[in-house]
Amino acid sequence: MNGRQSGAPVGSQGLTPVGSPNRIARRTGANMGSPRFGSPQFPRTEVRAPEAGSDNTRSTFAERVYQSIGRLRGQPELGSPFGAQQQTPTAQRTNTSAFSPDTDSQMQLSELDLGAGSSSDVLAASGSPQKVSSVVASAPKRAPPPPMTVSKSAARPAKATAAPVPTSAIPASIIDLPSQRMYALAVLAVLVAWKLYDAISLNADTDRTSFYLFFKWCVLDTALWYAGWRLHIPRLSVSLNALYALAGLSAFLNLNMFFMSSSVLTLAVKPVAVSIASSCLRSVKSIPWLGPRLVGDSDLLIDSFELNEEHILGRHTIHVLPHSLTHMNPQGKSFCIDEAHLRAMPWYHRYTSGVFGHNRYPQTTIPILVNGTHPDSISYAYTSFETGQRQLRTIKNVGALQMETNAVYPTLGNWVMATYHLPISEIGAYEIYSVKDRKGLEFRTAAQAPPTIVVSCPRARLQWREDANAADNFVVGSDGHASICQRIDRDQESGPTSDGLIQAVVEGYEPIEMTVVRLVNGHREVINLDGIQPQSIDDQTTPGEDLDSDQLKSVEKWSRYKTRTSAYTLSDTFLRPGEYVYKLESFRDAANHSVKMTDMNANGIFDGDEGKATPYMARIAVHRRPGVRWAEALLNAELPLRLSEDRARKSSYALPLSLLGVGPWTVNYVIVNGADVSQESKSFAKAVGAVIDANQPGVYHLVSVSDKHCVGQAEKTNVTLAHAPKPTANISATPITAHECGGEIGALIDLELTGRPPFAVHYRERNLRFPNSRAVTRVVRSQQRRHLFKVMPELAGTYEFEFFQLEDDNYPSGLPISSTIEQEIHAQPSAKIDTLSGRVPTRACMGEELELPVRLKGQGPWELVYNVVYENRRTAKTVTGITDESFTIQLGMFEQAGEYTVELAQVKDGNQCARDLLDVSTVINVREGGPRVSFQCPDNGVRVLDGEQAQIPIYVAGEFPVEVRYHKIGDASEQVYRATIRRKSQHSSSQVDSVAAYGPGEYELVSASDICAGTIDPQGARCTVHVEPKPSVWFATDHLHRDGEEQNPGIWRLHESCEGAALQSAFELGLSGSGPWKLEYRVDFWTATNARSGVPAFVDRTATHTLVALQSSTLKPECCEPGLYRYTLLSVSDERYQRPQRLLAAHEAVAPGAGVTVVEHVITKSPWAELRAYSPDGKPLDTSSRGSFRRRAPSIRHCLAPGQSRSDGDAQTWAKLHEHLPVFRIEFEESGQAPFQAWVEVFPASGPSEVVHLSDIPGYSQPITLPDHVASQIGRYHMRLVRTRDARGCEHQFVDPSDVGLGRPDHGGAAIAGGIEIEYIEAPNARPASSSPAANPTRDVCVGDVLAFDLRGLNSWTVDYSYNKAHRSTAVTKRLFRRIADVPGNFTLERVCHRSANDCCSEFDDLQYTVHDIPRVRVSGGKDVYQDILEGDKVDIRLDLVGTPPFTFTWQRRSIEGAKILESHTVKDLDKYAYTISTASEGTFEVTFVQDRYCQYPKGMK
Q1: Distance in Å from the first CA to the final CA of the chain
Q2: What would the pLDDT profile of 1277-1298 be if each residue is shown by its tens digit?
Q3: Sheet with 653-660, edge to edge strand ranges
Q4: Over the Cα atoms of the chain, what is R_g?
Q5: pLDDT at 1205
Q6: What does DSSP say about strands 1376-1380 and 1366-1372: parallel, antiparallel, or unpaired?
Q7: Which of 187, 1303, 1430, 1473 could cross-link with 1309 by S-S, CB 3.0 to 4.6 Å?
Q8: Is the pTM for the entire model greater than 0.90?
Q9: Three-state SS annotation for 991-1049
């Protein structure tokens, strides 16, 4: 064993190798021996040491390989209490991995295939692939199994799954995939470089921010990630979630890089970015000739310049060595060894494992802490618990032991603090005896250190009790799991051990605690077995008989550490059905060695090997006892159930059952029919649709039920079936006699019925007087068992009543019966209102007569009595001698309006047989008069728009529909129009309707009627219809004048207006109609430069406008752009005519003051001018003021040396200078009319502005002469046009009058817009900055100093300087010019010029500097020296200095760890170049500060 232990737990469900697959393969080895598996008594367990704070040791990879072999073979375990192949759970352990190989089985290691995937597959001897993470151990058995050998088998490669072919949005036929990836990476690299450049440029010098850069890079980054998601380039594709994450991350980075100057990211990245950028710039600058010209005097190089750290080199460290110490098991841990594993090992492994490190088996080791030099030999004492003998053992090959280095002391040579792991293979007590190094010096050992106890590792398992009772169908299956039927109560249990079905057996150093988890239907319960008296105790070993008394005392002393076996019985009632799962969760011995099982899945159910039981887990399936009862729908039905022979009823029933349990089922039931009792049974495969077919009467009792597992009881409910009796009928008849009618007029029939109501009796009625007539079938229905009904036919004759069918509830299809009754019938007369032959009147008018048709039956002649009822009066009338069956009653005339009821009261035939009539009547509504009609005409008549049909409102009162007739007065055709007024509700008293009018005019009502003639109201007999006039609009010509041009004669125009001037007049509009009006007009425009102005085909611009006008309105003409405007009225609409009415274009008035719809207006162009500048020789300068109103024009600059201005010099010098200044002119466009006037505002260099008036300008160009006092000093002055005017009086205003006279911007006024600007520039100057080393009057500076100069003048300079005779020129935009003195030599600032005017320069001869080098110091030759000394020895430390004396330096002594300063000294004014420090103290000596005559290092210290 090589002493290295893996930290991955090994269990029944898998192993997790530590490290990569390559590391696992290296630790496996190529030719492993054949391990032995499992103890015959106990399966393999793994143990954890008691200390929680210590590091977990790990089982070796070889051990996991051995375990996987046993599982991959798929061999059944012999003698397992569960009768199935057992499985070892995963155990968590602290110090050791105890593995129990089988001493009686020899196997060879199969080849192991470990790939890079998530799980590796191994091929067992059978060739079937299994997971390498599965492990199988031997199950406990009393007798050992026979030996078994398994041959080696080669690994079969796993089946490969075809991976999907990667696709890209860009077809590979256009760009192949590698090229796509290359282009994508190139784009990414360019964007990253660009972003870094922007970030460094923005943040290198100042803490500026830029929203533009932030927004730009957010857009670019989002586009980049979107392209990666959209293009799907293989290996570079981005998912949608990754797209969102990358876009958010990019926005966060951009926010920190460009928008937040003080962000955490900026503070973290800026120093790194500046360092990288400065390094790149220094590398570029080092290129000869080209480098300085590319980089120049970068501020980044200046700010990031750092002096070389080699100015102070070397440190000297002195250390005193401590004494060497050793301590066995310093943390006081306890250890255990799996004895079964020891017995399975070859004999020579016990003696060579510590030397050769056999890594196939886990090895228990005891840590030995060594603090000092490397040990050469270790001696320790071993005491056996079995014999009590003490043995002294020595390990000379210490280098072969596993070692962990805790601390290294580089300053102490070969001193270390290390832990050596002593491998042990025997149970007993261990003590350190002595440790020596190579020189033979003995280490000090810890005083009173207790011995280290090594006991046997605890093991446990679950097993079924061998004497378990088989009651309640207790069965152990082939997979090792058991099943039992649900127990009803405890009285049904049999035997004294019926409660306990499972035992927990544990072996180890007692007392031992166990935790068993029981899951009952997912409910977790914890059973702690702590301090419970075990069922049996068996000591594995007994003292030998050949031991002496001292050895017996020693054995007795150590006997409490011996291994014992205990068994505990777990009892349960199993009253609840479901799944009972028992799992040995953990167990712990007296030395606190604990084992925890971790093979519980997420649902709380324990997993075995392919569903089989393991020594640590067992399942008991408690089956619910089955049950049976009648279905709820059957119990809710009406009982008893009736069996009927009718086809509409049931002759048998399917009695539904409700089954509980697991199919198939067998149901036992009995049928009791009086004294007959029959036993029946029926089997069912499914619970759904389980029924018992019942076709015989009786009482059905459910007895019992059995399902797949158990026998259950049935619910004590019964179902009764009974035969339904057939119905019967007893029919009798009694004649109904009337002597005045000649005898019998009908029959009273009596029905006596038996059966279940309701009943229906069918019979046929036939008049034998007419043998060829069809019989009439009738039905008599009754809810009672006795029923009486009358039969009274109207016609005379002998009637036969044949009853042929009887129905009741049990026989709805009916049963045939036979009963006939004959009866002689004398007919009675009858009368009724005839609704078929004639119209029965319901309405009438006063004074009108009506006829009511009546039909009579019987033997004539007839006598008819009828009543006329009006209000509370009843008038009876009799009509005799009626010989015809059809008779008409004459009613009327009606004298009063109201409701009349005519009733037929009695009819008598020729035999004087009278018959009273019931409910034979009709109602007649008599009206007093017809409808009343009148027009509801407005006061001004009905008004309608042109083209629309008018509706005349009319008032109608009466019964609807009402027909109205009317005509138009004065119509030559004398046509009469008809209209029918209909009413939805006949009960409305009045309604206002309308009739159609056919054109304008006066209409008159002629007549109105419904069923009666109506009346017309004379006041509303007539109504007039008017048509509204259309609106109109026109231009009033009172303030217009005629156009005399030949192109457009007769067009009216306004007076001409000037461009930009306020209009004094507008177009007046004439309006007719009903206001307000909405006008639409068109404006045609021809520019002033259009040669064909006024021709419609050459119009420059056309626009249509809308205007809302009142009674008096005007149209405001256009006012801005010069040219011809033509206004044309297009349409008009008013309040009545909402649709626009088109207008005709008319140049002439149709009538005086109306009709003109086209007018014109001319706007003349204002005089436009601009200021121009010319050189004295007449050459024009690009300083036109025309564009200056849109942008700032360039200035005319003139450079002056100091003292040349009028304020500094004399007037004569200024006059000579003035002769060379530019000449300014004002130039007009030729569109204006001369003479012109102009006003020019001049802003001098200082003082208020002045307006110069130029009058009577005869031509289009005129020079401008300005007074000398306007521009007389160095600085900038400005002039601009204010306004111009031509001979027509038109003006052009260039500047707002409110802005004239305001001060210059630098004097607190508003900005000056437009015009021409002149600037007199003074030559620049440069002086050393006061806070810079350049201000040193001696002109001596050091390397690393920044030479800073204040520049004066315009904010743009060119600086020329030389450094060590190398001349350079650089452009400067800041007022502070800086240069780093990076090498010794000479620096001279020669000249400064304005970049805008390169001929304005200043030269210097007093800015010459000498750059001195930084002093240097070397400690012990500039090297880091580590020296070990003994107490009392001294060491001389030499310091060498380089520079210009005198020197001043500071040296310090620090602790070896370097955190604490032990002493510090400063040496001043040293004129020598060397210095020596003599010391005997421990620590690190170093120099922190050095200074010579000119310079110092570090620069910030004094």
Answers
A1: 63
A2: 788 888 899 888 888 888 888 8
A3: 627-630, 653-660, 691-694
A4: 64
A5: 54
A6: unpaired
A7: 1303
A8: no
A9: EEEEEEECCCEEEEEEEEECCCECEECHHHCEEEEEECCCCEEEECCCCCEECCCCCCC
